[in-house]
Amino acid sequence: NMNDNTRIDTQAIQAIDGAHYLHPFTDNQALGKKGARVMVKGEGIYVWDSEGHKILDGMSGLWCVNVGYGRKELADAAYKQLLEMPYYNSFFQTTNIPAAQLAKLLTEVTPPQFNHVFFSGSGSEGNDTVVRMVRRYWDLLEQPQRKVIISRHNAYHGSTMCGASLGGMSGMHAQGDLPIPNITHIEQPYWYENGRDMDPDAFGIKAAGWLEAKILEVGPEKVAAFIGEPVQGAGGVIIPPKTYWPEIQRICDKYGILLVSDEVICGFGRLGEWWGCEKFGYKPDLMTFAKGVTSGYVPLGGVMVGDRVANVLLEKGGEFNHGYTYSGHPVACAVAIENIDIIRREHLVEKVREETGPYLKEKFEALADHPLVGIAETCGLVAGLVLVKDKKTLEAFDSALEVGMVCRGHMFGNGMIMRAVGDRMIIAPPLVITRAQIDEMVALIRLCLDKTY
Ligand code: PLP
């Protein structure tokens, strides 16, 4: 019984939580006074809190629970591996069975240029690996001056020093003296904010042009790589015009710069293809993944290393002085293997592409008729809408985040999780969501918009 909360003393948990647990990205003093919501159970696309409230998780946790909650197959895979060989890594010429098998499996579900993988424990660590690997690559090619990595404002690439430096979140840069040297940013391909006076496809070309301008400003011989999320997730589900990525690819090719796709959110079917780069038609040299690789059940991340880079590292590299205690963790890899098997046997990528993605598009974009909504857009199973003060001019609220937080509050109160990012409200539901559940979710969004209006 999901509502059996008789054994949970919510206030006692909140008290020790408030006293001792510093939550990430949280004003902990404010949270301590209010008390964190205690989440106790998940099943399918729903989660339950300790007070028995059933909540539709429109965010898949943090964009990761792609196959939904309560999957016994994943628990079994972990249990079996935990009993057999819970951990082994030495960095000294050993391997384990799930890590080797997952490495092969990943090369099967990624584009053909990928035949190697480097494992990490998270997306942030994956991007730290990218920074070191990219610079190592250019050192080995005797172009050590190529150190600069170009990223974008409002990008999110993680919370480690490299991840937060690659990211373009000013609030993060302001804490901890970031970015680290030789990382620079260009403006994001956000039509609503940066190109509303233009046709979106023309804007896509213009926004990609900012990369070329930056390359020329830095000096092409100094640029090592460009990194981007196919669709910016944490930045607010910023979906680029379709012209953007092919033009980015052309510019990277022109200057011989490595192209890195951060697929931590977009990978494993979120956009209706296995990878965001497949959806948008570009061919990265490196790809960061995490989240959806295990549907978040256990931590795992990594970098898919394309042949262009792998061949240099293998042939000229010798030892790459880099690795994590949990690189290739057998339990995480065993769960990932089963998770990928679920995605395949339940045809989740095809389902998003052909059924639930188009259905969400139809239902979610219809929210644009609401007086509070400027634009509402989707890409596979991510979606975002802009809250506007004036529908005609698309003028934003002065305190857009406050309005978003009010809206988010109504969401929680009415049994749904949706995230507020500035003036945008965003969702990324589990890939197992059904049409009927999409109807339920969109009806809840409309209800909360009505209450916010
Ligand atoms: N890259 C992207 C695109 C992400 O969205 C995230 C997390 O949200 C990360 C990297 C960092 O991953 P992690 O939180 O697993 O370190």
Automatic annotation (TrEMBL):
Gene Ontology annotations for the cellular component aspect, listed alphabetically: cytosol
Sorted UniProt keywords: Aminotransferase, Pyridoxal phosphate, Transferase
EC number: 2.6.1.-
Cross-referenced Gene3D superfamilies: Aspartate Aminotransferase, domain 1, Type I PLP-dependent aspartate aminotransferase-like (Major domain)
Keyword Isomerase among UniProt keywords: no
SUPFAM superfamilies reported in the protein's UniProt record: PLP-dependent transferases
Top-level division of the source organism's lineage: Bacteria
Cofactor(s), by name: pyridoxal 5'-phosphate
A single MF term (Gene Ontology): transaminase activity
Stored PANTHER family: AMINOTRANSFERASE, AMINOTRANSFERASE CLASS-III
Similarity section: Belongs to the class-III pyridoxal-phosphate-dependent aminotransferase family.
Protein name: Putrescine aminotransferase
